[in-house]
Automatic annotation (TrEMBL), chain A:
CDD domains for the chain: TM_PBP2
GO cellular component: plasma membrane
Coiled coil, from the record: none
Name used for this protein in its record: Carbohydrate ABC transporter membrane protein 1, CUT1 family
Membrane protein topology class: Multi-pass membrane protein
Subcellular location: Cell membrane
Main location: membrane
Keywords of this entry: Cell membrane, Membrane, Transmembrane, Transmembrane helix, Transport
Family note: Belongs to the binding-protein-dependent transport system permease family.
UniProtKB/TrEMBL annotation, chain B:
Gene name for this UniProt entry: ugpE
Subunit text: The complex is composed of two ATP-binding proteins (UgpC), two transmembrane proteins (UgpA and UgpE) and a solute-binding protein (UgpB).
Pfam families (UniProt xref): BPD_transp_1
Name of the protein in its database record: sn-glycerol-3-phosphate transport system permease protein UgpE
A GO BP entry: transmembrane transport
Organism: Loktanella fryxellensis
From TrEMBL, chain C:
Name of the protein in its database record: Carbohydrate ABC transporter ATP-binding protein, CUT1 family
Keyword Nucleotide-binding: yes
Family as reported in the entry's similarity comment: Belongs to the ABC transporter superfamily.
One Pfam assignment: TOBE_2
SUPFAM superfamilies: MOP-like, P-loop containing nucleoside triphosphate hydrolases
Alphabetical UniProt keywords: ATP-binding, Nucleotide-binding, Transport
GO cellular component: ATP-binding cassette (ABC) transporter complex, substrate-binding subunit-containing; maltose transport complex
Phylogenetic classification of the source organism: Bacteria, Pseudomonadati, Pseudomonadota, Alphaproteobacteria, Rhodobacterales
Amino acid sequence: MAGLGDLLGRAVLWPFVLLARLIDLPLRVWQRWTGIGGMAAVFLAPTLLIFGVFVLVPLGLNFAYAMTGGTGILLGERPFVGFEQYGRLLECEDYTRRLTCREDQFWTAVGNTGVFVIFQVTLMVAVSLITALILNRNIRGRGFFRAVFFFPVLLSPVVVGLIWRWILQRQGLLNLIMVNLGLDPQVWLNDRFYAFAATIGVSTWAHMGFYTLILLAGLQAIPRDLYEAAEMDATPPTRVFRRITLPLLAPNLAVVLVLALIRGVQIFDEVYVLTGGGPGTSTLFLTQYIYEAGFASILRNPGLAAAASILMGAVLVVLTLLQLWLSRRAEGGRVR
Amino acid sequence: MSKVMGFLTARRGHGGRWHWTDVVTWVWLIGGTIIMFGPALWLISSSFKGPAQLAEFPPTLLPYVQELAVVDGYDDPLPLFTATLEDGTTQVLAEVRRVGTNAQMVDPANPETRIDVNIADRTPVRQIGLATDNYVAPLVANDFVRYLWNSVFVTMMATIITLLTNSMAAFALSKYDFRGRNAVMLLIVGTLMVPLSVILVPLYSVVNATGLLNSLWGVILPTVATPTGVFLLRQYMLTIPDELLEAARMDHASEWQIYWRIVLPLAAPALAVLAIFSVVWRWNDFLWPLIVLSRRELYTLQVGLNTYAGELNVQWHYILAMTVVTMIPVVLVFLFLQRFITTGIAGSGIK
Amino acid sequence: MGQITLRGIRKSFSGVDVIHGIDLTIADGELAVFVGPSGCGKSTLLRMIAGLDRPTTGTIEIDGQDVTRTSAAERGLAMVFQSYALYPHMTVRQNLSFGLENTRMPKNDITARVDDAGRMLEIMDLMDRRPTQLSGGQRQRVAIGRAIVRNPTAFLLDEPLSNLDAELRGSMRAELAGLHDRLKTTMIYVTHDQIEAMTLADKIVVLRKGVIEQVDTPLGLYNRPQNLFVAGFIGAPNMNFFNAVAVDGQAELPGGLRVAVPGNGPVTIGIRPQMLHLADPDAPALTGTIRLIEALGAETVVHAAAADGTAMVVVLSGQPALRTGETIRLAFDPDALHVFGADGQRLD
């Protein structure tokens, strides 16, 4: 059996091995010419090329797009409008009333995203912390339950969206449960409040396993003898949690918090499939606004989308820097 | 049996009474298992129900199909019902056709006599069974085989290219000391801050300019540049002793050979983790293919599924079945490689 | 052939000099040992000879050819690394063949060479195993085998025995010596273990802080150390040193014993612990108070304090009747004294 697997592996790898052999000769010549140092450039070239073309160039172009108007996608066809797009996004007659803004949809999206992030991140951190604490107990089948909570993380957002759309529909599973409990069935996704709650619940359902894993890793890194020492001192469990677990888990908690924030601000796929932003605009979030402004709506305006994405990017950069700083601190803490 | 009970009642103390935290733990774990697995199981069960059964409320837990009977004088098998006759007796009859609120039925044992039954007086004879047509029809009649192939192609190509380019870059960044190495590292860290949603518009125009619009390569190439992959591999390659590379250099190996024959095989565990991640990422990608691909025959499964679900006349029986198909590779990954992924995440905090 | 010549080698890492100008010639077929405390630059020197590091200035010649800018692969040398650096994903045979395959040698020749080396090192029955399935000693053999199959002009060995336990180290040392006798190839051997250096070397190069302190045969180093550092470094237990002032060719050891010394002014007088023996009761003697006695059976190691408090160690043969706290009276052959001047250099 092992022989067969080996043979199969070789058959699959064969073209690559051949390619590697062929490429060796020109690279040897290159190496002779530039020395070992020059080879670093060779190894970096493909990645840097792809990074350059598909990340760095777009990043620069983004600013150019945000300064131009019209509906054309080619930069040359687009008239320069300066900061007009930002103005359009940010101008309101009365900043206390959303509808007086020139681009009220943008403000709707910002408001929705803000509320979403606050509730979703809170729920996410709470649920994953509780799950991690429970999984860290001396329970049987820990590996199995860890896998259970991780399962939805792998599902695609489209699948997640559709699964829950099916459960929340008029004749769905949730209404079956409601009826069995003697409650009135609801058309969940047609209700502004329930639809918004559903986006929070579903996205938490889909991603909590990931955060649970990070927290669980943090919990398991806490030395057992600390707990044993506390037990010798007859420390009450709540005090153990507040004085030992929480402080030692703080770096991981911080990383989880910021990561959840970063992901939350960008929420799109599963919500788009679940509610499509509706009913009305009650679950319209920033990324969907950018997508629709740039590509989907009839009056598409790439410049406006670019400007909005730059504003979102600025928030993300701040959050990411925060995360890098926190995770570096977390690493330092572990070494100590 | 006692083992099972021992397992189910395992708790914190060394024997003795149940602590309240034990109750919370098991409620949470069992409830969690139902909430995490339940929706997917419900989806799978529903995907085997016919359209009529899907429209029922309350829904049944398991899929049923109506029993059919071959009746003399009729070419096609006829559906069976339990009918309550005028005299109050019940009898299993086969339906020939429906006229208004009445159904023309026959007794399979006596196909000559037609019996008229009000449709309210009959219930279908059903048994647990699978409506496999939900799967066959979209794959054969619609484009789902095409979508499936597109998804497989994108996933495989993107993963191969990711593994190759990322491991080369990681090799250079972990094993060479050259000027500008820190700058390159910084650049790659920087791109972590540039998620796709921030550069949608200009990336679209770049893909447009390079002629990759409406091509699967337009989906593949921009996703290959994952800083996460470079990081993961670099971190692992740093643990490969430099002496091995030096020994290979003394052994007349070229730098490319060192990469190909020494470092790559030794980085296999990290490559495997990245491969699994990459497969899951690329299989699940939605927003970017949605933007790049506007021709139906190029859709990936995710985009095709969303488009299908967004149509005015939602054909749930097909959508549910195709959702299951979309889920299959990921479930396989979960079943066989879950341990790899969870340790990978716990080790590096990436997703 | 395999003559290696270093001329004016200097090396600095990010501005810090670690090698301060080394000139050295190692003759063809010679087994030269670089020895010195850790951080003395002996490994760096070896890596520069190998071509893995480049000297900042200076030239390296092999058989008269300047190879300073030649890559490691093209110098025709083979190296045995401290960690052995066996490719963990290859079998023993693949490990041995890898270097030969890179030179595009025909398959049959590779097999023949690998088998020869395998027989010589008695590792034929390990050929299909992976390095992780081998014991430390077996790995060591494979690492040496990988060097042998290359048929190099010289072998470079970087602390090759340091990962073995004491017993295995002894037997591998003997095998390495036997191997060198058979192959008659130049070998450069880096170690911090002076027993390895003394037993293996044709020539020992003592290094300290990036400079050569002395180059000589093992016994030459032992008998005539050129400076205080070499005197203290070679020989175990360490040589005893006494500070004294030489006046008119005479100096006084602690306790008043006068000895003849060359030179004038402050000197350091050294004598090896093995060169001291118990003095006759009425003869003049070097005296000390016994602090500790280590009876090893065949010999007895006595730690004592001289009259001025200087610590000294004496190795006496047999099991003399001594007790802690007693005074010990010692005599020695005047020719066994080593005298060093204020600059630490030998006075003769």
